[in-house]
Amino acid sequence: MLGIRYQGAGAQGKSIDEATGGVVRVKKHGSLTINTGTGGSTAIEAGHLDVQDGANVTINSKQDTHLGHAGDHWGPIMLGYADGDNNAEARIGKGANLTIKRTSSEASAPMISFGGGMANNGKTFRVEVNGGTLDLQDSAKDVATWQKSWVTNAPRAGMITMWGTGGNDTIEFNNPEYINLQRKNANQAGSMFRMEGSQNHFYINDPSTDYYQKYGNTAATVPVFKMPIIRVDADHPNELVDPSAYSRQINFVVKYDGAGELTPKDNVQTIDFKRTVTASPITGKIIEAGKYTTPWQSDQESFSDVVVPVVPGYHADKKMINGIKGVDSIEKTVNYAPNGRIIPVDPDNKELKDVKQPIYKTSATDATQVESGILLPKVKGYNCDLVTITPEDPGKDTKVTYKPIKKDDILVIKVGKNKATDTEAVKALEKPAEEAPAKIAEEKKNLLQLSQLKNLKKSNLLLQQLNQHLNLLKSQLFQNLRWLKLQKILKLKLKKQ
Questions:
Q1: What is the DSSP letter of 378?
Q2: Whether residue 53 has pLDDT greater than 60
Q3: Full set of structural domains in the chain with CATH
Q4: What pTM value is reported for the model?
Q5: Which domain of life is it from (predicted)?
Q6: Which terminal residue of the chain, N or C, has fewer Cβ atoms less than 10 Å from its own Cβ?
Q7: Which of 233, 296, 301, 311 is nearest to 269 (CA)?
Q8: What is the DSSP string of 406-434?
Q9: Has residue 433 got a pLDDT over 50?
């Protein structure tokens, strides 16, 4: 059975818009329904099928394996079969619909078939859906398998087949409203499209948009697939593309730990990065290295350096965290530890009880160091040969030896009626009094030398030596002055008696 058939030259090789014959044209908002029976029944055989905007074509077919003279080339729709039909096209306009449903249990022909059984050299076959619907539903099982296939149950024909190895085949979906190619028989394997031409092209795109080539080459068995692409970024968002694909905020966080309640708060820097991506407007999938894709960019090239805060009584393991350049968030940690102490001990290295143990003072300019030249505490009843110290390790305690003050170092003078004893005491003081001026002159000389030494470049070791020498000089001078004072007091009291 044939529903609509053109005999003779058909479209005579003219395009779908130029041809005056051989075209089944369903005009705008028109409707065509064809119901066919079993056997080799074909609904439309022509050069072109033109379903214009808003029109509807519905074919209900019971076609089976009892085919007519064209064998498995004889489908429900058959285009470009005649020798003169060098151009064959099925075109579906905006809002238009072409639906074919085959309900038979067995069939070997395509739903839409292009060309005859020869090579079809020079013929051009085309399916174009421009904003309309193409709905093909096939319930039949194809009993004619393709002998060249490595799949034993693969049919020779696709649901849309363009026969002939010498043709130029194109399938193009331009922003279609709905595409459904469905094999409803669960036991039927097979392809949706079979394009045998020397040049094969498959496009899914809107004419107003760009597209990219997914894969393919010029081989007859490998079609070229192309899909639409769009630019997506902060200025051109798309609901299918996650904003994180083109806009991100990264943080440089410096955390501090170990100083208890004095621990500084986190130092957080933020940089905004943006880029443009190439994506599919249909699925939202990002196309890597696409036409519009750009690297991540930011107004700020890198994070700023972070100077580690000074915490009293603690030293840090880092003085500074250098700013880093990157596109991912970064986190660094600075650890604080307690500073060491000055531990006064006796000559037997035992800690002195009930005395202060000062904590090292952290450097004001370097959180990893403590101050040098730390003044030693005074301890009642004890003397120390040192005045200051410089710790070698900011976290390690430093023991400092203190010596007890001897009783022999204290002069006790008893004043009473025993003049003989008093006279002896005066005599004992006369010699030191005579020697005092010479000793004072010597001490002044030493103090002058000390003043000159202080003008030299100071180092921690030199400073300690100078302090020790100064203490010694002060002690000697104090002794001489004390002798002179005692001598005067004693003479005065003796005169009064």
A1: P
A2: yes
A3: 2-211 (no CATH), 231-337 (2.60.40.4300), 339-411 (3.10.20)
A4: 0.48
A5: Bacteria
A6: C
A7: 301
A8: PGGGS-----SS-HHHHHHHHHHHHHHHH
A9: no
